[in-house]
């Protein structure tokens, strides 16, 4: 099997799922997006479930590449402001260059609610985010225990749906019309600053 062509088809399937949603993910649409003869995608991925699996595997590869790039960029953000800037950058990437990847992942999550095997494939992506956010918090000198990591991860994950939908009133209500301010606000809620109103609340470490 030609690996280059297989990767080309997988990338095309990611693009189709992001653009057309689950109902639009067909072998014919993938062939068209990849610019290959009709029937090619079906030869590589005989069923729709095989197509979904191919997209999930590609998303997992892309996620790991992004995680490796972040890990290779240095020890991580050194303080609260640097972490807020990094989180805001991740949100801007999700709405910009990474939009297709993130949209495809969210479509896969919806499909996974009805396909346990797909949920198992996606599980490493979601689970790894909790540990990664805990490490980022600790690198920035902030409390990074399980409670803080969960709160930050769920806030970031929840933001994606609204960010990609792009409805202006919802973005404004969520604070996502200003990713930097949103990131600072989430960090203030997750890890209140020492002179904040919740300074006396014991934080879990």
Can you walk through the features of this model?
The N and C termini lie far apart (50 Å). 75% of the residues lie in helices and 0% in strands. The longest helix is centred in the N-terminal third of the chain and has 25 residues, at 48-72. It is mostly helical. The model is unreliable at 197-205 (pLDDT under 50). It has helices at residues 3-24, 27-34, 40-44, 48-72, 80-95, 99-112, 116-139, 146-165, 168-174, 179-190.
Topology:
Elements: H1 3-24, H2 27-34, H3 40-44, H4 48-72, H5 80-95, H6 99-112, H7 116-139, H8 146-165, H9 168-174, H10 179-190
Helix pairs in contact: 1-2, 1-4, 1-6, 4-6, 4-7, 5-8, 5-10, 6-7, 7-8
Distinctive features:
205 residues, single chain, mainly alpha
Task: Give a summary of the structure in a few sentences.
This protein has helices at 3-24, 27-34, 40-44, 48-72, 80-95, 99-112, 116-139, 146-165, 168-174, 179-190. With 205 residues, it is mostly helical. Helix 1 (3-24) packs across helix 6 and helix 5 crosses helix 10.
């Amino acid at each position: 099997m030609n690996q280059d062509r297989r990767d080309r088809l997988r990338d095309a399937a990611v693009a189709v799922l992001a653009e057309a949603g689950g109902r639009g993910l067909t072998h014919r649409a993938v062939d068209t997006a990849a610019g290959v003869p009709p029937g090619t995608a079906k030869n590589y991925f005989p069923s729709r479930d095989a197509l979904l699996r191919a997209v999930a595997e590609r998303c997992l590869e892309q996620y790991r590449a992004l995680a490796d790039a972040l890990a290779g960029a240095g020890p991580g953000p050194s303080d609260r402001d640097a972490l807020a800037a990094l989180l805001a950058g991740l949100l801007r990437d999700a709405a910009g260059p990474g939009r297709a990847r993130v949209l495809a992942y969210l479509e896969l999550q919806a499909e996974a609610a009805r396909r346990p095997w797909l949920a198992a494939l996606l599980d490493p992506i979601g689970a790894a985010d909790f540990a990664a956010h805990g490490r980022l918090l600790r690198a920035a000198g902030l409390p990074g225990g399980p409670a803080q990591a969960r709160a930050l991860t769920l806030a970031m994950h929840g933001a994606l749906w609204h960010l990609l939908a792009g409805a202006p009133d919802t973005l404004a209500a969520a604070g996502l019309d200003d990713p930097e301010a949103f990131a600072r606000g989430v960090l203030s809620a997750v890890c209140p600053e020492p002179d904040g109103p919740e300074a006396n609340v014991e934080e879990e470490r």
